[in-house]
Every structure is written in C-alpha cells, then in structure tokens.
Amino acid sequence: MARHVFLTGPPGVGKTTLIQKASEVLKSSGVPVDGFYTEEVRQGGRRIGFDVVTLSGARGPLSRIGSELPPGKRECCVGQYVVDLTSFEQLTLPVLRNVTKENRNHLLPEIVTCVQSGRK
C-alpha cells in the first residue's frame, strides 16, 4: 500500500529537517529512498534564495533574488525570485525519471508552497 505524506507549515517549523532525518532513518534501515527538497540560502542573515538538494547529496541553485542568469539559460520568476530552470531540471528530472512501479512508494517528495502574496 502506497503511503504519501504532505508537510505544510510556516517557514522555520522543521519541514526540511523532518525530510532529512526521515530519509536518513529509512536509508540506514535499508529502505531505498530517492527524492529532493529545497533549502534556504542566506547571506548576512537575509534569505537570498533557495537551493534544490537531492537525497543523494547533489545540490544546485533553484532561485535567487533578482539574479541574472548567463545568456541562453531559461528562467522564470516567482515573486522576487528568479528561478534557474536549467539547474532545477538537471537535478530533479533524473530523480523523477527513476520512479518506477517498484520504487514509487519510497519517493519522498516535499511540496513547497511559494511565497504568499505580500509575504517575504
């Protein structure tokens, strides 16, 4: 039987920490896990963006405040953040392509709710 868990809550309550700890416990118990989560990037105590991190440890930029991407890179904006689609796809698409009938019950997705209107 498939089990899905959706974590919601305001920033800073421990959603990402729970994903990290749960995946480590499952891995150490021999349960195959795959997936990714996002992590805040801060500079001088201020949030400047987010990275995408796979459960295998690969990391890359997901978004930055008003950053400019090199020519030829695709981008979109979510609020004040410029999303690096190329980086996101390079890290997450292989994870999503590895989902098979046999392993789909072990995928640990994190649903990230982007900035609500007027909230930074």
TrEMBL record:
<dbReference type="GO" id="GO:0005524">
    <property type="term" value="F:ATP binding"/>
</dbReference>
<keyword id="KW-0547">Nucleotide-binding</keyword>
<dbReference type="Pfam" id="PF03266">
    <property type="entry name" value="NTPase_1"/>
</dbReference>
<dbReference type="GO" id="GO:0017111">
    <property type="term" value="F:ribonucleoside triphosphate phosphatase activity"/>
</dbReference>
<dbReference type="InterPro" id="IPR004948">
    <property type="entry name" value="Nuc-triphosphatase_THEP1"/>
</dbReference>
<keyword id="KW-0067">ATP-binding</keyword>
<protein>
    <submittedName>
        <fullName>Cancer-related nucleoside-triphosphatase isoform X4</fullName>
    </submittedName>
</protein>
<keyword id="KW-0378">Hydrolase</keyword>
<dbReference type="InterPro" id="IPR027417">
    <property type="entry name" value="P-loop_NTPase"/>
</dbReference>
